[in-house]
């Protein structure tokens, strides 16, 4: 079984950030789970705040500067993604959504994703399921059932009636490891398939001149 590549997308704004801390713990849990199954994996970590200006320029011009283009290529060609965002105003951060907006809508099709989010209070714990999961489902990615939410109180003791953060991370890691193993290595689109460079439902006329393929 070949080595797998995992892309970690962290949308924290501060340095250091609890978003990155959560992303690191989730990543380590996935690597440990894969190692227990004799699966090699490498990790590329992307702090979106390092690409914030490039993301904005891409949205304005339609072109990704080289550093952002490299990050995008690494994310969309990975075997799995760990995506973690802070929760602002009951949903994912604007920076997180802006990065998603510069991706091709079909680029994450079938890619397993472990979702994570953090906020100051557990009142936002449902944000993964009502905001973040639908976003990746729309992109035809394959988010695993368990999302990992961390409130400020989770960085110490667990809340009453809620599984400790470590347990939730471990469960999500197992689910992502299962999904990675089920998926073919580098299970991205076939570069020799016309749908890869045309896009589904697009014609050469659409590609060359913005002409309708209908």
Automatic annotation (TrEMBL):
One GO MF term: oxidoreductase activity
Residue ranges of domain NADPH-dependent FMN reductase-like in the record: 5-155
Keyword Ligase: no
UniProt xrefs under InterPro entries: CE1759_FMN_reduct, Flavoprotein-like_sf, FMN_Rdtase-like_dom, NAD(P)H-dep_FMN_reductase
Keywords associated with the record: Flavoprotein, FMN, Oxidoreductase
PANTHER family per UniProt: FMN REDUCTASE (NADPH)
Annotated protein name in UniProt: FMN reductase
Species for this entry: Microbacterium limosum
């Amino acid at each position: 079984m070949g080595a797998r590549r995992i892309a970690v997308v962290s949308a924290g704004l501060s340095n250091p950030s609890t978003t990155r801390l959560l992303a690191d713990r989730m990543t380590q849990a996935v690597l440990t789970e894969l190692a227990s199954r004799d699966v090699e994996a490498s990790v590329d970590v992307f702090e979106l705040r390092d690409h914030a200006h490039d993301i904005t320029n891409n949205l304005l011009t339609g072109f990704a500067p080289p550093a952002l283009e490299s990050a995008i290529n690494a994310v969309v060609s990975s075997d799995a993604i760990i995506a973690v965002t802070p929760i602002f105003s009951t949903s994912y951060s604007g920076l997180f959504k802006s990065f998603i907006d510069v991706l091709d809508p079909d680029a994450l099709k079938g890619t397993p994703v472990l979702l994570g989010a953090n906020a100051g209070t557990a009142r936002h714990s449902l944000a993964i399921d009502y905001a973040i999961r639908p976003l990746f489902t729309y992109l035809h990615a394959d988010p695993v059932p368990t999302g990992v939410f961390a409130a400020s109180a989770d960085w110490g003791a667990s809340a009453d009636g809620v599984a400790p953060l470590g347990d939730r991370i471990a469960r999500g890691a197992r689910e992502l490891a299962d999904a990675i193993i089920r998926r073919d290595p580098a299970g991205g689109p076939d570069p020799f398939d016309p749908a890869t460079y045309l896009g589904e439902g697009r014609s050469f006329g659409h590609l060359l001149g913005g002409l309708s393929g209908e």
